[in-house]
Write a structure and sequence with these properties.
It holds the Pfam family HTH_6. The chain is of the alpha/beta class and 279 residues long. It folds into two domains: 80 residues, Winged helix-like DNA-binding domain superfamily/Winged helix DNA-binding domain (Arc Repressor Mutant, subunit A, Orthogonal Bundle), CATH 1.10.10.10; 166 residues, Rossmann fold, CATH 3.40.50. It is 54% helix and 9% strand.
Length: 279
């Protein structure tokens, strides 16, 4: 058994939309990776606090015939027989190849358009729209917010931790905010998870872009949009989450096409009048 569970098992689950119960099962498998290939379905069920049939349904949802089939696959995965890491090339090429794989998984996940469509509608209907991203996730929140402000009348970026986040969420809710978009990326800042809890308590609809259906954000979100984070280099690569952010922005445009077109036209007229761009 190797120490690769931290990346291989989450990758196994990342392309499937899991129910809360299934996320608990997946989390148990990751947390108990060294014992994953030895646990029976009943033992895993007891550990996760679910029924044994739930474990079977979990395995089937992942595309296996049943839990024994899943367990055999995990054994091969952990022994390196089905390694996910790309081979060949130098370390930089392997990192890029891994990101290509993450994008393919994201594309497969978007076969079901309903979650992204529902998220786009919910965010477009929220005025103001708070967008949360702390620490490593702050650039993603800022990137999304920059473009979202072109089609949404009131986007508020929350990118500083501490107790002020609670104040900002309360102010946004009092101003009419219905939803919160959160970028929740490893290593999952405590302030981010606290903010999601606060948003839920305020009655806000939480949409999270995170790295896995097993992310700590999943239990605190109404809609979870997973996109794998690259781990081939010293620092994480956020290629797939950034692409997903732009896909979500497109879903927002599609949710209100007339308003979006008008706002974009107004921006272009304003930009031309102020001579903002050189071309």
């Amino acid at each position: 058994m190797t120490d690769a569970a931290g990346t291989k098992l989450p990758a196994l689950f990342s392309s499937t939309r899991l129910t809360p119960a299934q996320r608990r099962i997946a989390r148990c498998l990751v947390d108990q990776a060294s014992m994953a290939t030895y646990m029976s379905a009943s033992e895993l069920a007891a550990l996760a606090g679910v029924s044994q049939p739930s474990v079977t349904r979990f395995a089937i949802a992942l595309g296996f015939e049943g839990y024994p089939d899943l367990r055999r696959h995990i054994a091969k995965l952990m022994s390196g027989q089905q390694a996910d890491e790309p081979t060949g090339g130098n370390q930089f090429q392997r990192a890029v190849s891994a990101e290509q794989d993450n994008l393919r998984k994201l594309s497969d996940l978007l076969t079901d358009e309903r979650p992204i469509t529902e998220a786009g509608q919910a965010l477009m209907n929220s005025q103001p729209l708070p967008v949360l991203g702390l620490r490593a996730a702050a650039p993603a929140a800022g990137y999304f917010g920059y473009f979202a402000a072109k089609i949404h009348p009131d986007v508020r970026i929350l990118d500083a931790g501490g107790s002020e986040i609670g104040d900002q969420l309360q102010q946004a809710r009092s101003a009419g905010a219905r939803s919160l978009l959160a970028f929740v990326l490893p290593r999952y800042p405590r302030d981010t998870l606290a903010a999601l809890t606060e948003a839920r308590q305020l009655g806000m609809h939480v949409v999270s872009i995170t790295d896995s259906p097993m992310s700590p954000a999943a239990e605190l979100s109404d809609i979870v949009l997973p996109a794998a984070v690259g781990s081939q280099l010293v620092f994480d690569l956020h290629t797939a989450p950034m692409v997903l952010a732009m896909v979500l922005l497109q879903a927002m445009c599609d949710a209100a096409p007339t308003e979006t077109t008008q706002r974009l036209e107004n921006f272009e007229l304003s930009a031309a009048r102020r001579d903002i761009f050189s071309t």
